[in-house]
Every structure is written in structure tokens, then in C-alpha cells.
Design goal:
Order of helices and strands: HHHEEH
Number of helices: 4
Number of domains: 1
Number of strands: 2
Radius of gyration: 20 Å
């Protein structure tokens, strides 16, 4: 089996074909994960713009535009939450495929401080490169988001050559208190 992973010519052809298929599936899932992360970043920027226009309409007491903008905010937030769920599913698939292909021991942590953070069991790093997003609770609060963290974390997950034991999917956490969070088993 070790020979199949290192290009031994005496390897079982069926095993080699299965490993190649898993590598192709891993690449496909990584591309899907990256595009989902990119969409989340774009949707966050869209929400910032709509929220800015909503706050301007609220300050000018323009009620007709406020309803339309609240509706648009709800739609964009719903789509963004669907992308969060999709990205979570893809991150779990990446973790499972890397475990099968590279023999990584990966734990999925489910506590309040590190919900959605994926890391290898031998990783003792306490760094938090997480995607930070403030909660949009009231109409009076502004939404501030850090979009750069999303791209950096997706690069960490997609990099096969460096640090295969760490997968940081902390940017996939749905921080919206109004929607149910998906628990990863």
C-alpha cells in the first residue's frame, strides 16, 4: 500500500486507480469549497452596501425605501447562510478525503470558542485566524465584517504541499443568532 502512494510500479492497479480517483474528487471538492468561500465574501460585501443604504434611508426617515432594503438584506443573508452550510459540507468532505488519502488524524471541534475550527490532533497551535463577523442584531447597529480572513483561510485548506495536518474552516461558522447553526457530527 505504501508503494501505491509513492509510485511503485508493482502497485495494485485497482488501488492506484482508486487513489487517483480520490485525488481527483479532492481537487473538485477543494475548487467547490473555494468558490463557496468567494461567494460568501461577495455576499458579505453586498450586505455591507445594502446595510449602508438602509442606514442612510433610516436616518432620512424614508420608510418606503427601508422596507425594500430590509427585504433585500433578508434575501442576501439567507443566500449567504446557504453558502455557509454548503461550505461547511465541503470542508467536512475535504477533511474526510484528506484523512483517507494522507492518513491525517483530524478532529472537528465543537465548542463555543472554536466552533467550526478543524485541525489535526497533533496540532497544538492556539492561533485564531478566524473570519470575524459582528452580529447584526438591531436596525441601530452597524455591520462590520473582515472579508480578508475568508480568502486566507480558504488558501490554507486548499494548500496540499504545506501543513497538511491543519485545516482551518473557522470562517464557515454562521454567527447569525436569528438562524439555527448546523452542528457538525
Amino acid at each position: 500500500m505504501a508503494g501505491a502512494m509513492h509510485g511503485d510500479s508493482s502497485a495494485n492497479p485497482a488501488l492506484l486507480k482508486a487513489m487517483t480517483a480520490k485525488h481527483l474528487i479532492l481537487r473538485k471538492v477543494q475548487i467547490q469549497f473555494r468558490s463557496a468561500c468567494d461567494q460568501i465574501v461577495l455576499l458579505n460585501k453586498r450586505m455591507e452596501g445594502v446595510l449602508f443604504r438602509y442606514n442612510a434611508a433610516r436616518d432620512s426617515a424614508n420608510r418606503s425605501f427601508r422596507y425594500k432594503l430590509r427585504l433585500r438584506l433578508a434575501v442576501v443573508e439567507g443566500i449567504r447562510n446557504m453558502f455557509y452550510e454548503y461550505a461547511n459540507i465541503k470542508a467536512v468532505q475535504i477533511v474526510n478525503l484528506r484523512r483517507d488519502l494522507f492518513g491525517e488524524i483530524v478532529e472537528i471541534v465543537n465548542d463555543e470558542n472554536a466552533v467550526g475550527r478543524y485541525y489535526g490532533a497533533d496540532d497544538n497551535s492556539e492561533e485564531d485566524d478566524s473570519f470575524s463577523e459582528s452580529e447584526a442584531a438591531d436596525d441601530d447597529e452597524d455591520l462590520t465584517e473582515d472579508d480578508e480572513g475568508m480568502s486566507e483561510n480558504s488558501e490554507d485548506i486548499l494548500d496540499d504541499d504545506e501543513n497538511l495536518s491543519e485545516i482551518d474552516g473557522s470562517n464557515l461558522v454562521n454567527n447569525n443568532p436569528d438562524t439555527e447553526e448546523m452542528e457538525i457530527a
